Amino acid sequence: MSHTHALATFLADLQYEQIPDAVLARTEDLFLDWIGSALASQGARPIPLFERYAERMGPASGSARILVSARSTSPYFAALVNGASSHLVEQDDLHNSSVLHPATVVFSAVLAAAQDLNKSGKDLLLASVAGYEAGIRIGEFMGRSHYRIFHTTATVGTLAAAVGVGKLLGFDKEQFINLLGNAGTQAAGLWEFLRDAADSKQLHTAKAAADGLLAAYMTEDGLTGARNILEGEQGMAAGMSTDAEPARLSDRLGTRWALAETSFKFHASCRHTHPAADALLHLMQREGLRHDQIAKVVTRVHQGAIDVLGRVVKPATVHQAKFSMGAVLGLIAVHGSAQLIEFRDLALTDADVDAFREKVSMELDPEVDAAYPARWLGRVIVTTTDGRTLTAAIDDPKGDPGNTLSRPELEAKFQRLLAFSGARTQEQGKAIIDKVWHLRDAQQLADLI
Amino acid sequence: MSHTHALATFLADLQYEQIPDAVLARTEDLFLDWIGSALASQGARPIPLFERYAERMGPASGSARILVSARSTSPYFAALVNGASSHLVEQDDLHNSSVLHPATVVFSAVLAAAQDLNKSGKDLLLASVAGYEAGIRIGEFMGRSHYRIFHTTATVGTLAAAVGVGKLLGFDKEQFINLLGNAGTQAAGLWEFLRDAADSKQLHTAKAAADGLLAAYMTEDGLTGARNILEGEQGMAAGMSTDAEPARLSDRLGTRWALAETSFKFHASCRHTHPAADALLHLMQREGLRHDQIAKVVTRVHQGAIDVLGRVVKPATVHQAKFSMGAVLGLIAVHGSAQLIEFRDLALTDADVDAFREKVSMELDPEVDAAYPARWLGRVIVTTTDGRTLTAAIDDPKGDPGNTLSRPELEAKFQRLLAFSGARTQEQGKAIIDKVWHLRDAQQLADLI
Q1: Is A184 an interface residue toward B (CB < 8 Å)?
Q2: Which of A10, A17, A304, B303 could lock A253 by a disulfide, CB 3.0 to 4.6 Å apart?
Q3: Domain B271-398, what fold?
Q4: Nearest-CB residue to A185 (from B59, B190, B239)
C-alpha cells in the first residue's frame, strides 16, 4: 500500500472516540487561538478587500459566517475571508517540522463548512484533527526544499483544508484519494512577495482555505482527481520538491498526534525570529543588561531563517518589521515585549528600536540548522558596550510543545488580540472563550461567535 | 528595465488602434472557436458539477453569463464554469511554442468581466489581445521543463486571464506589475491526473480563468503582489522551471503579434497527436492504403508527446482516447476522421480502431524534438502488410498558422460543435457567428450568446 493510500485509509477510518482527550483539548486551544487571530485583523488592510470581493462575487447572505464582520455568505467566501483574516497579525499557530500554520487554513475551511452543513462541535473537532494530521504530514513530506521557494501554508494548506472539510462530509478512502488530487493540483503560493512586503500572504491563506473547501465540495459531487498527486511522477513532490520523503506521509498514523506538537505564537512576529528573541530576553534578564549596554547581537540561526528574514534590511511597514530579526530584537531589548501593540506603535518609529536593529545580524549555525525544522533552537552571542562577550541558548521557545501556553495564558492572549482591533469587547471575548471550552457539547455552530 | 517591467509597460500602453487589422480578425476567429468549444460541452460531465458549485456558492443571479446554461451569475463563477466548459472537448486553440491554450482561460475571464463592467466589443478584443500576448510570452519564458510536470494552461493561464481582465480595467504599468504578482502566486496545475483520466483538466482551466479574474479585481481594489513574480529568486521560474528564458517575456513586444501564431484544432484530440495524424492521413491518401493493409505505424515525435501521451496504453474513457496516439491514428486510419462524433461513437467500441491502436508506437525523433515547440512536425513510418516501408512528413498540421482554417471552415467547425452537444440550433449558431463577425461594432456583450 502506498503512503498516500495509508494516509487516506487513516483519514477515512478516524473516529472521534479514538482521539485522546488531551488532543481534543489542544484542538480547542488552537481553535480559540485561531478565532482571536482572525478577530485581531478587523479593519486592517488588506482584509476589507477580501470582504468586498466576497460581497461582489458571492451571495448577499448565506449559511456560513465571516468572523470579523459577522456577515453571512456562502461557505466558499467565508473560508476565503476567514483564511485571509486569521494569518494577518502573525499570531496564529505553527507546526515546527512541517513549517505549516495549520489553523488559518484548516479552521477557516472547516468552520465555514460545518456551519453550512449544520454540524456539531464534535464534528468540527474530528474534522479539524484530520486536517491537522494530514497537513502536517504532507508538509513534512514536501521537505525543506519546498519551503525555500513555496509558502507551505499556501500549498500544503490547500490539502489540509480540503481534508478537514472532506472529513466533515464523511468521506471514505476513495473520496479522500480523489480529494487529495483535487486539492493538490490547486496548490500554489510563492515566497517572492516577501521582499516587497506585498499582500500575498493573505491571498495565500485565503485561497488555500477556500480552494480546499472547493475541492471537498466538488469531490463529494463526483469530481475525480489524480490518485497519486503527492508521490506521482508529475505530482506535487516531482514539481515542487527535491527532498520529499514519502514515508513521512504515513508516519505513525493513529499513534502520533501531530496536532499536539503545534506551537502557539507568543511574540507577534514571524516564527523564525522567536528562538533568538527568547534567547536575547533570557540573556538580558540573566545579566541585568539594558538595551543601551549592548553593542552587537549575533543570532545563530538555521538556513530557513536567513531565507525568509534575510531580505528585509530596513523595514518599511509593520508587516515587514515582523520579518526583520533586527526590529523584533529591538522591541524585545528596548521594550521587553514584541506584541501587536508594540509592533503597531513602536517598531517603525522608536529611535531606540531603530538603533538596536542595526546592531543585529544573522549567521548560519550548523547545529541549529541540523535540528531544524524538528526543533527551533535559539542561540545569541551578545557583545556589550564594555567589551564582554555573552551567550545564551534556549531550546524550547515560548509556545512550543515543550513550553506551551496554559489556558489562562491563552485566554489572556485571546483578550489581547480582541483589544488590539476592538473587534469584540472583553465581555464578548469571555463569552466566546466559554463557548470554545465547551465546544464538545455544541450541537450547532451557527452562532458560535 | 527588467523583462517583466517591459512587458507591463507594453500591456499598459497597448491601444486598440495599434493592433493590425489581421490580428483583430484573428481574435474574432479565436473567439468564435472558443464559444463553440464551450457550447460543445453542454451536459457532459464534469461540467454540471461546476454549474452546481456556482449555484451553491455564488449569487442566484448576476451581471455575467454562463455559456452552456445561459444562466446569469457573478463574473467569478461565469469565468469558472466557462473555463471548465471551453477546454472539455479538446477543440479549443493552442499556441505552439508556449504550449498554452489561450482561449479557454483568456476569453472565459475577459467575457465575464466585460459583461460585468458593461464593456464593448472593441474593449473585449483589446483585452483579449493583451491576455494572449502576455500569456504566450510567459509560457515561452517558463520553458519545456515547466511543461513536463505543470499544465501550462493552468499555471500560466492564470496570468493570461488576469492580464486580459486587467486591460479591461484600464490598468497602468504599476497595476500590471502587481497583477502579475497576484496571479502568479496562485498559479497551479499538475499533469499527474492524466494517467487516471481524472477531471482535473476542467478544474485547471476553470480555476485559471476564475483566479485570474480574482487577481485583477482585487488588484484594482489595491491588493499588492510580488513585483518580480516571474524572474525573482522565489518566483515562478525559480520554483517551477529549470530552463526559463527571461528574454522571452519581452520578445518583440508591439511588432510580433503572438496571438496570430495560435493554432486552431482540427482533430478532436490532444494536439500532440495532430502532426502524426495528418502525416498518416496524407500517407494513406497518397498511397491509396486501407487500414487493414497497414501492419505497423511508428510515429516519430518530440519528447513532450511521449510525456503527455505515453501514459495511456489502452484508453478506458473517451477523454483518455484523445490522449492515446494509437486510438487517434486508429480513427484516422479506419474512419478518415477524428472529430468529436467519431470519438464518442467509435474510439472505444470499434474493433478495427482497437486493432489499429495496437499497431501504433511512438519514438523520440531528435529533429522533431529540436523543432518543438516552435514547430510541431509530423513524421510517420508505416510498414504495410505486404512488407513495404513507407514514410510521410508534414511540417504544418491543419490549423497551424501556416495551414490555418478559413472563416467558412471555422463556421463549419463551429456548427459541428453545436450539433455535437445540441446546445444551440444551427439557426442560433448562425446568429452567434454573425454577432462575432461584427464584434467590433458591439456596444455591449450581455446578450452576445
Answers
A1: yes
A2: A10
A3: 60s Ribosomal Protein L30; Chain: A; (3.30.1330)
A4: B190
